[in-house]
Write the structure tokens for this entry.
Amino acid sequence: MSQAVLENEAAPSARMDLLRFATAGSVDDGKSTLIGRLLYDTKTIFEDQLEAVETASASRGDEYTNLALLTDGLRAEREQGITIDVAYRYFATPKRKFIIADTPGHIQYTRNMVTGASTADLALILVDARKGLVEQSRRHAFLTSLLRVPHLVLCINKMDLVDWDKSVYDKIADEFTSFAAKLEIGDLTIIPVSALNGDNIASRSENSPWYEGPSLLHHLEHVHIASDRNLVDVRFPVQYVIRPQSTTVTDYRGYAGQVASGVLKPGDEVMVLPSGMTSTIASIDTADGPVDEAFPPMSVTVRLNDEIDISRGDMICRPHNAPAVAQDIEAMVCWMDETAPLRVGAKYAIKHTTRSARTVVRGLQYRLDVNTLHRDDKAGELQLNEIGRVRLRTTVPLLADEYRRNRTTGGFILIDESTNRTVGAGMIIEAQ
Amino acid sequence: MSQTKPYRASHLDALEAESIFVMREVMAEFERPVLLFSGGKDSIVMLRLAEKAFAPARIPFPVMHVDTGHNFPEVLDYRDQRVAGLGLNLVVASVQEAIDSGHVRELPDGTRNRIQTPVLLAAVEKYRFDALFGGARRDEEKARAKERMFSFRDEFGQWDPKNQRPELWALYNGRHHPGESIRVFPLSNWTELDVWHYIAKERIPLPSIYYAHDREVVERDGMFYAVNEFIRLRDGETSEVRRVRYRTVGDASQTAAVLSEADTVEKVIDEVAATRITERGATRGDDKVSEAAMEDRKREGYF
């Protein structure tokens, strides 16, 4: 442990892209082994971490080094052999930096997977080749589609245990493809792997000459994510107004925020909601100086040529391309609170972009069975991990788009006003 | 859009934008934020991000140093210079003063990591801070890998890992009752290598101990500790002058150096990219106590 430097390969550079992906599956599918394998093959597992895992495995009496212990860090998880919560893992190759949101497959799977998928560019679902698709695989595919994760990868794992039989792969792939066709999944890639042996993980395996696609890592490095961003609809939620109180900088008034979508340029005509006032962009400032354009995910400060009253929660957009200014919202809501269900008539705090308001649940049109996609229109409430179509009325207008068009201006959270807990996640279907 | 522009943001640009977003969100939603600043590289990067988030205005909150009294002089000098340069208020929460006044008791082994927590919590109460920026990263340690960007703490400053608020999209829930607070970790998604790439890109000066230098050290459990007023040679130990640098800077009695020839930021990046041991594993005596040492300290209110 005394020497820090052992080897030097092609090092991750300062100019990689970033890809966030969510993994879903249960321990039995080999998810932890797969993540362990990705980290190991990209040299991300450190010697002291591996040593700690080996020690912990040995003291638990595991017969092999249990790579699940790399991600299961909390005392209760180790004691009970379960994963409590979303864990974030990081690795990089010379091409990309990756953030994995690793979500457990069993308890509270929906809450955790929805959380992990909300920021993901890609979702990775695992199935066991011997078992084929199970209820959980369909559930995960549905949540991927509900959260509009642009790319989906299905890894058919444990192919070594079915002797790399192409017909097993074909059958599962066909079944999954026809199920996925009923959902809105933009891009699907299916890869036969053995996470335990590393087949088709970091490089193509000789065991599957019939498989012509990429290895998992190659796919993660090359999947085209640049077009996933919405560069058309200008949406700039104002986060904070910068007005320096100093003698050297006077009369500065800038609107700070992160570009949600679209491209902003100095000189562009803009409209500010909810007032509807228009102006033009005087400059787009950063601490490194003004820039010629701003696009997602840049955090910048916008100055306008006219003095308009603008504050946090307002939205800068274009006069002929604006979000709805709406107090009546139709949305799919995933309920995340174990202490009380969502009920019609109940009031919550709502946070949408940088805007906070209060809302009342006007109606629950149906509860969706995430396994069968059956709609139960008799449901009176949503329990923990249940999803339903909900009608809300807000105290002040939200500046909202459909979630399918814009994941940033189409998503919101509900907060219990007495406990301050985050109790629901919503995806807007219609706002008026 | 007729011309084909890539509109490409590198991973460092994306991380910077996310951290700046988080800092502005806190400033907009909290009454009394404070940034924990130790003079360590992560808090130095965090301070740089705060500078960028509110430019051309000054950083609109004070910084606080929880001072164990076991310091590297180079780091204290750096802290004071940086704070003065930015025109910030510095709050020092002193563990030594708390020991002298009887508020906390020195542990038998002389380590002060654990007794920092009550000193931190007392300062939070005294100044009524409701949001504390910390430089912790999720890649550092497995308990941190499960902590939220906005980490809720009850009126005792405690973290409850089983009862964390789900964090969706970039919608952070900072609501809290009086006396409760939120620890905010803008560098959650950064790795050690990202931090070093950013230091290089932004040309951020660091305390000299982060770069290779000759120092009198003693080897203990495979780690190299500086011989100074906090670490004295035990019977049978000998010291030697080695070329070392620090990967982390914490309590001077608990933080070890690594052997290194890296005397520039570029050389450090090469070393970090090639290293096979985590920075806390290589340099922190305090994390080696048990498998869940960090989780236990966080539950008590550690940052």
In short: Chain B touches chain A through 80 residues (CB under 8 Å). The longest helix of chain B spans residues 11-29.
